[in-house]
Request: fold
Amino acid sequence: MKVALTTLGCKLNYAETSTYERGFVAHGLEVVPWNTVADVYLINTCAVTETAEKKSRNLLRRAHKLAPDALVIVTGCYAELRKEKLYEIEGVSRVFGASEKSLVVSETLSMLEIPGQARNDDGQARNDDVPGPDPTVMPGHDLASQETLPAYSSGERTRSFLKVQDGCNNFCAYCTVPYARGRSRNIPICELVKQAEQIAAKGIREVVLTGVNTGDFGRTTGESFLDLLKALNAVDGIDRYRISSIEPNLITEEIVDWIASGTKFQRHFHIPLQSGSDTLLKKVGRRYDTALFASRIDYIRQAMERPGEPKVFFGIDVIVGLPGETEELFLETYHFLKDRIKPAFLHVFPYSRRPGTRAAEMPGQVQDSIKTERVARLEALSADLHAAFVAANKGLPERVLWESTVKGGLMAGYTGNYIRLEKPYDPALVNQLEEIVIW
Reply:
């Protein structure tokens, strides 16, 4: 039996797909590329934008056309939010909502008449005893179960994405995540340490902590995010950690001071801003303002940037075209980033109107053509900011973790502060950390 898997959306989805893959392989299935004939096609969907939903539907139709008799399995956020709509697509065999993720492998095996197990895909106990979100926020929607599927990726030789948290309690006006993934909850530290040890046993040197609202870790176990960082830091075999995304209001001075004291956590922060306009931040229900955001950036730089040492990489999420975003408010964002924050990179997204959210009904919806033009302006700014960041780091000592991919006779790797470097391919350096001076 052959299985083909593909993933849309976030690194959390990627970690979950990799976990399903390990489950299928453990039961004798062969993993093949998505565009080849298989007995099972699994797509882990995304619903953050209308474009992501369209891509999901197109992939499902393509799979059915390629192998009409194959099982077509759907999971992910789109599967939770639009289950009935997905069942209308010809060829779809089974749609697994958020409450059923731990059954993906076992039930698919049953459909194939291959013996499987009723527990989750890594054999771990399920956790269903967490209260759900407020049903008054999105009337008529069946809220996601609070099961938390343990997951980590193992498809790359050098890096693994480890899921530490799921769900979100923020209910920002533009976002469907609390309905697709449920309330904020976490996997216990003891279990995450075991998973990190499994990752290390595979020879993987770097771990990226991922979640929906990673810094909100501890809701279900009473543990703290800092407790988690300290426990993972002690795992032998893992040389570097990164935090994939953390809300600015959840970055405490205690966390920053501990990371800066000399740990395996790198000078690399991915922090969502969404808008540099306090008017828009308040309107969509973000839990900070630009003053707090700037103060967090300032504190990290003061704690972690020392003369003659690498600068801190800040990747910042920005949504363009939120309802009511005038040219004046957009320029507030533009200049806040350009003149005040000066990050290393911008992740820019055009606002996508999501049915059922409060923002979808707000006045002042921005034309798509204006969104496109503003995205282009911020992407051009991002290119300038990244070039300036790389230039500011040239000549400074760092360590690169070299990867196995070869293109044009060159291998690539990333420094601790996430600068991509290339050099002539040397097989002896694959998955090795090398002391270098940034060029």
